[in-house]
Amino acid sequence: MDLFLQQTLAGISNGAIYAALALALVMIFNTTGHINFAQGEMALLGTYIAWTLLAAGLPYWLAFVITVVAAFIFGVSVDRLVIRRFRNAPHLALVVVFVGLLLAFNATAGWIWGFTIKDFPSPVSGLSTGTILIGAHSLFAILVSLGLLSLLFLFFRFTLLGLAMRAAARNPASARLLGIRVERMLALGWGLASILGTVAGLLIAPVTYLEPGMMMSVLLYAFASAMLGGMNSPGGAVLGGLLFGVLENLAGTYLIGNDLKLSFALAVVVTVLVIRPNGLFGRPDVKRV
């Protein structure tokens, strides 16, 4: 029973991280209609920036704030300099753009920081939770992810700027008629998605390692989480991330082993597409013709 509880709590910890990255994928999907395959590599660059600041001697939380600001600027810049030029391009063209960004960002990380594995510190590495069921960093990851996601929910639900962003993503033409600067709102969405991805990278790096391929598997897990919850449901992405984290951890412990976790994620994606393409909490995409 202790092993089951331990693996369940560890799954919730991983799921909270997947939920942050899944929510970033959902935000971009709702604004562009496409999966941002470069979301993980954008998070990777942000994590490397944080590592550089920490290696220079900055305190963790100061490095965290600077990294979050840099991630926001980076996300806005990607939208302004690249994505905006392909806003009305065919679907396949945007897929190629996202794959190209993935390869470019990954190569840039390797070119600047090298391909050697680097240790990434945790701000709670010296703390103890007083229990063997969950480590300090796992508990920290759960609290940070859920706190960040709660703030994001309040932002979109109760602020004028959040409502304007939702309107711009849902119906750009109507939003323009209401005086909303749609392009500015979409760029802001890219900035927030970049922050979410970077926070996920900062939380996962102390658990695994920091190197250019770090986010590849995490992006797949986040994609499976978003598919499970629903690509058009931000709340579903969060619940899907938590659910997938638990299922993945329990399956790896009792059924398939840790070596087949990537295969389990792919199996979840295929199963969802076959049985319920909109996810557990997504809504059908109905269009008038």
From TrEMBL:
| Family classification | Belongs to the binding-protein-dependent transport system permease family. LivHM subfamily.
The portions of this protein that span the membrane are 12-29, 49-78, 90-114, 134-164, 185-207, 262-281
- The source's domain of life comes to Bacteria
Example of a GO cellular component annotation carried by this entry: plasma membrane
- Keyword check for Transmembrane: yes
Topology in the lipid bilayer is annotated as: Multi-pass membrane protein
Name of the protein in question: Inner-membrane translocator
Q: Please provide the Gene Ontology terms (biological process) for this protein.
A: amino acid transport
**Organism from which the protein derives:** Tistrella mobilis (strain KA081020-065)
Task: Quote the InterPro entries the UniProt record gives.
Answer: ABC_transp_permease (IPR001851), BCAA_transport_permease (IPR052157)
The entry's localization annotation reads: Cell membrane
**Gene expressing this chain:** livH
Kindly give the PANTHER family that the UniProt entry links to this protein. ABC TRANSPORTER PERMEASE PROTEIN, BRANCHED-CHAIN AMINO ACID TRANSPORT SYSTEM PERMEASE PROTEIN LIVH
**Could you state a single Gene Ontology molecular function term?**
transmembrane transporter activity
Keywords from the UniProt entry: Amino-acid transport, Cell membrane, Membrane, Plasmid, Transmembrane, Transmembrane helix, Transport
Q: Main location per UniProt? A: membrane
Q: Identify the CDD domains for this entry.
A: TM_PBP1_LivH_like (cd06582)
